[in-house]
Each structure stands twice: as C-alpha cells, then as structure tokens.
Write a structure and sequence with these properties.
Chain lengths: ~450, ~775
C-alpha cells in the first residue's frame, strides 16, 4: 500500500530544509524590498527564490546510470542472525558523479542502515579500468524472521552542490536473501537413537554384498550381538562388530501442515503487526529443527506436505528429499521459501484419497508438524501410520481437539509445542514416549525389517 | 527526520582544516557584504579595520573550537576578544598593556558610542570615517561575525548566516537612492553560495571519514582517486544560473512606487540625506528666555560676527544650503583663504578663544573668514565655499577652542573698484527663480537703478533698508502673516516695511541678486556684549541667544564675500558700506564699532538654528514611540527565556505527535519542567530513578502517580525495548497512543506545578532553569538542517 506511493513521490525533486529556508527568506526579502522600494536588495531576494528552483531543475535533470551488485556473506542466514551486505556501485555515466547519498531498501524484517554518503564516483572507465568509477558499500543486515527476501533496490538521493534540492531514485535491482528458520539444537541421545540401527533398507544392504570387508571395530558395551562380525572376531581373538552405521541409509519422513485448512480464521494469531501466521511460523521452526537433527544423525529425509503426503514434496526444488551433505541447507532454504498459507484448500474435504501405504520394505520414523489440519488431512496421517515408526506429531496450540483425537486413536504420539523454546523438552518427550510405550512395537518392526 | 541526510550530521567533530575552510568562507561573506557600505563611507581604511576585526574574531573562534571549547562558550569568548580588539584599536592610552581594558576605556567606549549615534545622525553621504563611526562599524562587524560564525560552525546552519549579513546590505538602500552596488550584491551572493558549497562538502567529508561505533553502521569504500573537479562544473552551473535568473527577475520586476504604500515620508535620521534647514526664526524670536550661547576672548580686541552656517540657495519659497558632501580632507587645522580674496591682499591672524556653553549644534560658531581652528574635540570639517565648520560626530556643547580669525584689510575703494563679474561666474549665487513678484524688480530698479558700480548698488540697497521707512519688529510679520524668507514674504515685507533680521537679510540678498551681485545669507551671532570678567587681562565677551542674527553677504571680485548689515538697530553697520568712510580699513565688524546692542530680538539658539531636522525639539509622538520601542525591547528581552521555553515545549509536543522518540520527547518535557521547578531532573538520572524521585511528592499520590508510571514505562520501552517496526503505530502493541502520552505529560506537569510554590512556578515560567543545561546537552546527535 505504502511503497508505490513513496516511490512515486521520491522520483520528484524536492527542496531540502535549507532550500525551503532560503525560499522563505527570499520571499520575506522580496516583500520588504517591494515595500521599501529597495531595488538593490531585490536582487538578493530573487537569488534566494531562484537558486533553490534552479537547484531543483538541476537534480531533476540528468538521471544517473549505475550498475549495482549486491552480495551477501553468508548468503544464507538463519533468522535472528546477521549477514554482511556488500554493494558494488559502478557509475555508467560519462561524467563523474558526486553529491549523493545512498540507502538500501529491504522488506520489513530486515534492518538497513540509515542513509550514508555515496562517495564521488569517476566517469565510467572503458579502457584500463582502475576502479575509480566504483564504490564499495558494506553494512551488516540483521534479520528477524525466516523468508526469502528481495533486498533492494538501492535508493540514491542526489543533492545539488549547495544542498538546496534533492531527488531520490531507485537504482539497480533487488537481490534475494534467504533467511532460514531458526534451528534449535536437539538432544542427540534421545529420540532417534533407538531407531537408527534398525531402520535400514534391506535392499541397500544387498547392494553392498561384501560387507565382510567393512572395517570392524571392537565391541563396545551396548552393541547388538547381531552385529558381531564373526570372521573379524575370529581373526582378532576378541569381539569385533561391523562398523557399518555410516553405510546404512536410514530414511525419515517429515510431514508439514502447509495449508492450515482446518479453521482458517482461528489460527490467525498475529504478533504485533507481523502479517505472518504465528502457529505456522512455529511449525516451520519445529520442522527445521527436527529435520536438521535427523539429517545430522544420518537420515535421509523426505519432506512432504500434509495435504498430499504421497506426491507433494515440500518444495519442487527437491522432490527426492534431502540427504547429507548439503541436505540441511536445502531443507532450510525450502522451509525459508515456504509462503505463509493463504488458506485456499487444494481439494475437497470429503474426497480422501488414501495414499499408497508405502509398501514397503521398512518402517521409518515419521514426524508430522501440525498447525491446523482438517479431518481429511488427519486421515492422511492415519493412513500413513502403518509405515511409520515411531510416529510423532508435533502439534501447535491451534490444532483442533478432534484432529488430535483421531490421531491418538491411530496411535500417533501427540507432542504439543507451544513455543520454540519448548522444543528440546518436546523432543525429549517424543523420545520418552518411544522409550516407554513403543519399545515392543519398535522391536517388532525391527525384527520385520531384519527378517528380509 | 532522515529525509535530509546530507545535512543530518551537524554535531560531529570536524577536523580543524575543514572548520578553517568554513571560517574562511564566513569571513569572506561578511567582508563582501560589509563592502556594500562602501557607497556610504569615504575611503577604504574603515574596511580594512573591519576586515582586521573580523579576521581576528574568526581566528579566535577557530582556535577555541580546535581546543574543544564548549560551543556555548565560544561566542562569549569571542565577545571578550572583540572587547580586547576594540581596546587595542580605540582604547588609546587608557588601556593596560595595549589590549586590557580599564574603566577609563569603557568610559571612552561609551563616549565613542554616543559619538557614533551623533555622527550617524549628522553625517551626510558619503560619511567620513571618524573614530566614532569606525567604532560603530567595528562593533557591528564584530557582532555579525560572531553570530554568523556560531550559525555556521556550531548550529551548522550556514544558510541562516545570510540573515545577519543582510544588515550591512540593507543600510545603503535606505539611505541612498541607488542602494548597494549591484556588483557587490552579486559577489555577496557568490560568497554565500561558496559558503553553502563548502558546508556541503565538509559535511560529506566528515560523514565519509566518520566511523560509527555501531557495528551495523555502513562502511563505505570510496574510489581511491576521486575526480577533483567532479562538481566544479555543476557548482558553477547551478550558481551562475541562479544568479542570472535572479538578475533577470530583478530587472523585470516593476517597481512599486513607495509613495503608493507609504506616502512620501522620506525623512531619515540615519545619515540624513543632506541638510535643508528651513530657518524659521520667527518662531524662535517670540521666545522670551535668553540662553547664554558662548563666551570669547579676543586678544586683539576683535568683535567679530560668528557665522554658523551660510544659506546660498534660493528657491523662491525658502533659502537653503547647497548640499555639499563633507570632505574628509578639510580638517580645521588649516583652512584655505576665502574665495575671491586676492592673494595680494595682506592678511593677519587674530586668535579668538571661544568657550561654548549650552549651545548644541553641529555648526561651529567661527568668524568669517577663519584661517584655522584649534583644540576642538571631535571631527570638524570646513566647507570650501562658505568656510563654515561643521562636525560629523560631535556637537558644540562644552567645546573650548581657538579660532584664528583671518583679518583682511582691503578698503571700500577696492570694493568700488572691484571688477565686474563675467556672466558665467557665480551663477548659482545670482540665480533667482523666474517667477518673482513685480515689486521686487521694481524696488531693485528704483533703489539701485542709478548705481555706478555694484558696490554703490549694494550700499544703496542697505541704506534703503536701514532708512526710517523700515522698522524692526519680531511680531509684525507673524501678525501680518508673512513670516519666512520666500518671494511672497519679501514682497509683503517691502510693502509693510516691518520685520526682523531674516526679512532684512533675505530681502537684501534677493535685491542684490536682482541687480546682479552674488549674494548669500549667513546665520550666526553678532559680536555679543562684554562682561566685567577678564581673563589674562582680556575682556570676556558673552554671546547669548539674543545675539542670534542673520545677515547678507555680497561677493566682490578680488575682495571676496563681504558682509552687509541691512537690519536697523541690529549689529553694526560695516564702515566700508558708508561711502563717506571709504578710506577706513575694511574691518567689517571691527572693534571700533562694537557697541552693546540694543533692541535685540529674543532669539533662541536651540530652535531652528541648531542642527536642522535631526535636532529639532523632541516630538512628543516620537518620544512616545521611542519609549514604546524601548519597552517592547525590554519586554522581548525579559520574555525571551519564557518564549524559548514555550517554543521548546511546542516542538516536543510535535515530536510526540510525529515521532521519532515520542515517549522520549514527553519525558524530556516532564524532566525539563521538573528542572524548571527545581524538582530534580538531572540528565544523569535514569527514567526510573527520576520517576521514583518525583513520585515521592505529595501531588503524585493519586492519578498523577499512575500517569507518571505509565509515561515512565513508555519511555523505558522506547529506550530499551526492541525498536518499533518502522511504519508501526506509536508504542506498538503495549505502548501508549499519542493522546495518552500527551495526556500523561500534561497531568504529570500539572502535578509538578501544583506541588511547587507560586514563586517557583513564576521562576519556572520566566527563568526556566532547564534552558541553561541545554547547550551542554547537545551532545547527542540531533538532526540538523538548513
């Protein structure tokens, strides 16, 4: 609403306070000189009036031409962090350029410094460039929320040599800055430890038939006996186990509620004038923390949207899920780019297309982050439940109790998350749930997987 | 607030070099504008003096700022430096170690100041730069420099420096028709632009060089080699285009005649544009009281007439003085031989020691002719034509001087034998308006028609006027309604044949011109009456207002101007005007004929003759205006702190409404109020400490305490909380709305006021203590403009 008007007004030359003062003094002088018929001082009166107008004409004429490059270091920054911005401004004009100041523009949520002086730039150097036509501007930009932001354009205010008039122009284009959701470190011991060794693709194992050649390491307390590497044990005379965790390819599933199709209006918690959906932002943060944690633990991560868990990847950019190395950054970037849901439903509530139940070789850990799903989406989760173990649903406060009932009925573990700082506790609770109630089930699953 | 960023960094410390550039531009501007006074003042010495003063003051300011003197102190110290400089230049021997003023120095300054006032009233254009005028110029330029310097260097609003420097530019416009010279004005404009340009440059330099402590502040890497002339073209282009546009606009603006707006009242008291003394002696004549004018002792027994001024221009209605500028070369220590006196004629000098009493005019009573005048105070200059002596900065009151009277000794025969004048010579002394009453021609023809020589004609005219037909009367002309000296008056006088010296003198002068003899009227004193007192065995002669007189002087080639005495019963008839005594020496007012005067008219030297329009008796209206102006000025000075404080409050309210720092602005106001009321409010206190401090006061028990807490919370949130998102409403989700802030501010202030005593409230209103700490509290950067 505000920006277009501001931009339009900015393109017009305006008088500075000094210019206004000069015009006012000139007008007063003019009245005085006419009154007393002082033709001599009238000259000064007209200087006071005419000079600011000439200055306005000057700044309005001659549009400067610039080439603006903007670089971020680091290029991806997590919300709440800061990134260094380097602007390279090159004068493309044939004449030297002086008397301007600059200010970078950015959407809300990013800080830009106050207006500063743009140093004089020489004329464009076609031959033998020495860099005298280029200035480098650096500043630190602080971020407060995740998202993909267009930083820019650079706003250059040109002032005439006497500081009487100025005109503000936008030069260069915007550059994108990714601000990823904040990642909360989760306790590595709890939660996934039990699941790691069991959930593996048997197929994967078969592609590595010569597991005998795996480097064996000595037995440590707690290693399952089935991993004892007997030939090596025989050779070494002590218990050796296969050191093959790294070679395993465990997969986990992360399902994020991106549509908020339940009760749209209720979830619209707003903090201050932040236009974003507070619950959704929390959910993104939970998903980011859990996802990064899983990736770091060696899982291959499949991210899905709740409204279409089978065919709806979180981002079209990574339809095959995420894996290390680099998977965490890709995940965070995709999460950063997630638009706040606008609440349009993708499909009718009654038509529940039960997804393919996976089939499958193995159960994998599944984590759902729910903001405000409707019952149809809850049914998706229920349908997925058999292929997931453990199945944990992080729910923010806006999830309706009906949905929670349905999920609990289907044996989803419900872990409520109220704010980001609760996340480590919630994670611990998710782990405790498995440690307490689930072990038999997990063991069964493991057994099934092992049987293959 | 950020809208004007190039100008928003006023408070940063500047390197001395850049300060020096600004100071140089300020100096240039002041001196260029001061030179606009060049059309008013003779010579150029005064300009160099002003330049010296200005340069010293600018350097002092520069030095003080380089030493990081608090900005509020610099102008005060500059004023001190100005006093030292004035002592150096004007203090003379009264100073201690050349520059340290003593009480005597200040007395001298007061004297110079009074003299400056007089000289400004008395001098015509171009004025002579006498010491009092120099003093006034030095003080004025010093004040302008100090103000301009503070505006440029501390307030960082160089555009406003235009206002003080306009003063010298305005003055010529009010005094002379052409006003200041165009070239000077153009240069002044250019100097002003130079100042603006340098300021912009200095600001940009300072901003570029400035490294903020804030780690988020931008770092700018400029190109290594900046094109030096990058903006010279633009600067010249914009500047010249502006000046040319202004010149074209000025030339094309029609002049609104001021008579349309103001009537034709052109009377000026500053540097009056020439003197036109309409000598209305009639009014003075009816004053009964005689006032002593002066006394004199003449070693050689002279009893001369004393001339004050000479009227040489007759315009039909009125006699006047040809407006001749005072020539600064014409100092009274050496005066020339009178015009027309043949160099062969032997002369002698007779000293006449004069002691002036209450007479207060700018014209010095001196005998005609006089060779030199000694021991005068003030600056006195003689006029080439009339050899009258006038002052530009002093008055005659209390003067003691020696006038060396030039005594020539031609005889009446020489007068008779004098050459006839060529038709072109002394034209202005023979000029008469064409339209004159017939009776004047007739009378002239009847009296002098048969005269052989001009001298005979002159004697005939004098004899005619002194005949028994004419009678001396002070009152008759008024009763008959023909007072004055114009044609109609003369015509009337020739019929009624009754009048006083003005009528006789002007009639003789007109009749003399009618027959072709150059004539003029001198006004002054007759020889006075001797007293019993003797000084060094010389009789003291007293001259009082009854001796005031007017007489004609006629010109004879080779002899010069010769006085006549047509008024019966007044003065002495010069012997040479009696043909039977033709052999007696030409000593018009010689001692031999000096007798105590009888039938002296009652004349009051204080009126009409005193000093032209500037010194007329105080008009009651003018006096009231002056009193009113003084009262207004005094009120303005007395109310200035209160007004400044009100303005401050107003601007803070505005900040509360429009930001930034709404709560802070309200808090500042509350704290300032507390300081005004001596209820705490130190800069060093945190909002919480301050609030706790004043909340103990009894008035804060009720609502006011709650409002105070609200306001305190708001200001704390603003100071320490996360910055409100730009574009967000004031205070965000938990802050106060503008109206609430204003309301709370009002309530807290009211409570503070209710708590204080009446005297404290009065003091808070008229002498707000919070203003004093302000200059020091400017450290936090505030956006500056203009």
């Amino acid at each position: 609403m505000k920006r277009p008007r501001a931009r339009r007004a900015a393109a017009l030359p305006r008088l500075t306070r000094r210019g206004i003062a000069l015009v006012v003094v000139g007008l007063v002088l003019l009245v005085v000189t006419l009154w007393f018929d002082l033709r001599d001082v009238m000259l000064l009166a007209f200087i006071g009036i005419a000079l600011p107008l000439v200055a306005m004409l000057y700044v309005a004429s001659g549009t400067p031409r610039f080439h603006v490059l903007r670089a971020f270091a680091p290029p991806v920054v997590s919300a709440g962090g800061a990134t260094g911005v380097t602007l390279t401004v090159q004068n493309l004009g044939k004449r030297a350029f002086d008397g301007a100041s600059w200010r970078d523009t950015a959407p809300e949520g990013l800080t830009t410094p106050a207006e500063a002086v743009l140093p004089a730039l020489g004329a464009r150097e076609h031959l033998l460039p020495q860099g005298d036509d280029t200035a480098r501007l650096e500043y630190r930009m602080r971020t407060s929320r995740r998202g993909a932001f267009d930083v820019g354009p650079l706003r250059v205010t040109t002032t005439d040599p006497f500081g009487l008039a100025r005109v503000t122009r936008d030069v260069g284009g915007p550059h994108e800055l990714i601000v990823t959701p904040t990642v909360t470190a989760l306790d590595p011991v709890i939660g996934t430890a039990a699941a790691v060794d069991g959930v593996m693709h048997g197929l994967q194992r078969r592609t590595h038939p010569n597991s005998d050649e795996f480097i064996a390491r000595e037995y440590r307390h707690g290693d399952p006996l089935r991993r004892v590497h007997w030939p090596a044990t025989a050779r070494r005379g002590e218990l050796m186990v296969r050191d093959e965790e790294q070679r395993g390819d465990p997969e986990a599933r992360l399902i994020l509620d991106t549509t908020l199709s339940g009760r749209r209006d209720r979830g619209a918690l707003r903090i201050g004038d932040d236009p974003r959906h507070a619950g959704f932002e929390l959910a993104v943060e939970v998903a980011a923390s859990v996802g990064v944690h899983l990736l770091e633990r060696g899982f291959r991560l499949r991210g899905d949207r709740l409204d279409d868990p089978a065919r709806g990847p979180l981002s079209d950019a990574s339809p095959d899920g995420y894996r290390m190395p680099g998977g965490d950054r890709a995940l965070l970037e995709d999460l950063a780019r997630l638009e706040s849901p606008v609440g349009t439903r993708r499909h009718a509530s009654g038509d529940v297309a039960l997804p393919h139940s996976g089939g499958t070789d193995a159960r994998m850990p599944g984590y759902a982050v729910l903001v405000d799903p409707d019952l149809a989406e809850a049914q998706h989760l229920v349908a997925l439940r058999p292929s997931l173990a453990p199945a944990v649903a992080f729910v923010v406060s806006s999830v309706s109790s009906k949905v929670i009932d349905v999920l609990e009925e289907a044996d989803w573990r419900i872990v409520p998350v109220r704010r980001a700082s609760d996340l480590p506790d919630a994670w611990a609770r998710a782990g405790a749930v498995k440690a307490g109630d689930e072990p038999p089930r997990v063991r069964t699953a493991r057994g099934a997987a092992h049987a293959r | 607030m950020r809208a004007d960023p190039t100008l928003a960094t006023g408070q940063r410390a500047m390197p001395t070099v850049q300060r020096a550039m600004l100071a140089g531009a300020t100096f240039l501007l002041v001196m260029v504008t001061t030179s606009a006074l060049g059309t008013l003042i003779e010579g150029s010495g005064w300009w160099w003096l002003c330049a010296f003063i200005a340069a010293c003051l600018v350097s002092v300011g520069l030095g003080l700022r380089a030493l990081r003197t608090p900005p509020a102190l610099v102008p005060l110290l500059q004023v001190g430096a100005l006093i030292l400089l004035l002592t150096l230049v004007f203090g003379g021997r009264s100073s201690f170690a050349l520059i340290v003023p003593t009480g005597e120095t200040f007395a001298r300054f007061a004297e110079l100041f009074a003299g400056a006032e007089r000289t400004i009233q008395q001098q015509s254009v171009p004025a002579i730069s006498v010491p009092p005028l120099l003093f006034a110029l030095a003080v004025g330029v010093g004040a302008i420099v100090i103000v301009a310097d503070a505006l440029v260097q501390d307030a960082r609003r160089p555009a406003l420096a235009a206002i003080p420097v306009l003063v010298p530019i305005f003055i010529p416009g009010f005094l002379i028709e052409d006003g200041a010279e165009v070239i000077v004005l153009l240069f002044a404009g250019a100097a002003f632009l130079l100042l603006l340009r340098l300021d912009v440059r200095v600001r940009r330099r300072a901003d570029l060089a400035h490294r903020d402590d804030d780690e988020d502040a931008p770092v700018v890497h400029a190109p290594r080699r900046v094109p030096i002339g990058s903006t010279i073209g633009a600067t010249l282009g914009v500047g010249v285009a502006g000046l040319v546009a202004a010149a074209v606009l000025t030339a094309s603006t029609p002049s609104i005649s001021q008579s349309l707006l103001l009537g034709s009242d052109q009377s000026t008291t500053l540097f009056s544009r020439g003197v036109s003394p309409f000598i209305d002696l009639g009014r003075d004549l009816r004053r009964p009281d005689a006032v002593p004018a002066f006394t004199y002792t003449a070693r050689d027994g002279d009893r001369p007439y004393f001339t004050l001024l000479t009227l040489d221009r007759f315009e039909g209605e009125v006699w006047g003085v040809t407006d001749r500028a005072v020539d600064s070369e014409n100092t009274v220590d050496r005066m020339p031989r009178p015009i027309g006196l043949d160099p062969a004629v032997e002369t002698a000098e007779h000293p006449v020691e004069v002691t002036v009493g209450d007479l207060r005019t700018v014209w010095l009573p001196v005998p005609y002719p006089t060779a030199s005048v000694e021991d005068l105070r003030g600056s006195w200059f003689w006029d080439r034509e009339s050899l009258t002596v006038r002052s530009v900065d002093a008055s005659t009151a209390g003067q003691r001087y020696v006038a060396n009277r030039l005594v020539a000794t031609p005889t009446a025969d020489q007068l008779r034998d004098a050459d006839l004048l060529g038709s072109g010579q002394f034209q202005e002394y023979r000029a008469l308006p064409d339209e004159r009453p017939q009776i004047i021609r007739d009378t002239a023809l009847a009296i002098a028609g048969g005269a052989q020589t001009p001298y005979d004609a002159a004697v005939a005219i004098q004899d005619h006027l002194r005949s028994s037909d004419f009678s001396y009367s002070v009152d008759a002309p008024v009763e008959e309604g023909y007072d004055g000296g114009g044609f109609d008056v003369i015509a009337n006088f020739l019929e009624v044949k009754s009048g006083y010296c003005v009528h006789f003198a002007s009639t003789m002068a007109v009749l003399a011109r009618e027959v072709g003899i150059p004539s003029r009227i001198s006004i002054g004193y007759t020889a006075g009456s001797p007293t019993d007192e003797r000084v060094e065995n010389v009789t003291v002669v007293e001259v009082d207002s009854h001796d005031l007189h007017a007489w004609p002087e006629l010109f004879f080639p080779g002899v010069g101007w010769v006085p006549f005495e047509p008024t019966p019963g007044r003065g002495t008839v010069p012997s040479y005007t009696r043909p039977d005594a033709a052999q007696s020496p030409l000593s018009p007012f010689g001692p031999s004929t000096s007798t105590p005067q009888t039938g002296r008219p009652d004349l009051d030297p204080e009126r009409g003759l005193s000093a032209g329009p500037g010194a007329s008796a105080p008009d009651p209206v003018a006096a009231w205006t002056r009193v009113a102006a003084l009262v207004i000025a005094a009120l303005a000075i007395a109310l200035a702190p209160a007004l400044i404080r009100i303005g401050q409050r107003w601007s803070r309210r505005r900040r509360v409404r429009h930001g930034p720092g709404r709560a802070q602005a309200a808090w500042d106001e509350v704290r300032a109020t507390a300081r005004d009321l001596s209820a705490g409010g130190l800069e060093t206190e945190t909002p919480r400490a301050f609030a706790a401090h004043i909340a103990e006061r009894p008035a804060f028990d009720g609502d006011a305490g709650a409002f105070l807490a609200e306001l305190r919370n708001a200001v704390e949130r603003e100071r320490y909380g996360p910055p409100a998102p730009s574009g967000a409403a004031a205070g965000g989700e938990a802050g106060l709305s503008t109206d609430e802030i204003l309301r709370a501010m009002h309530e807290v202030r009211a409570a503070l006021g209710a708590d204080a005593g009446a005297s404290a409230r009065l003091r808070a209103r008229f002498l707000p203590a919070s203003l004093i700490g302000r200059a020091r509290g400017r450290a936090r950067p505030t956006p500056a403009g203009a």
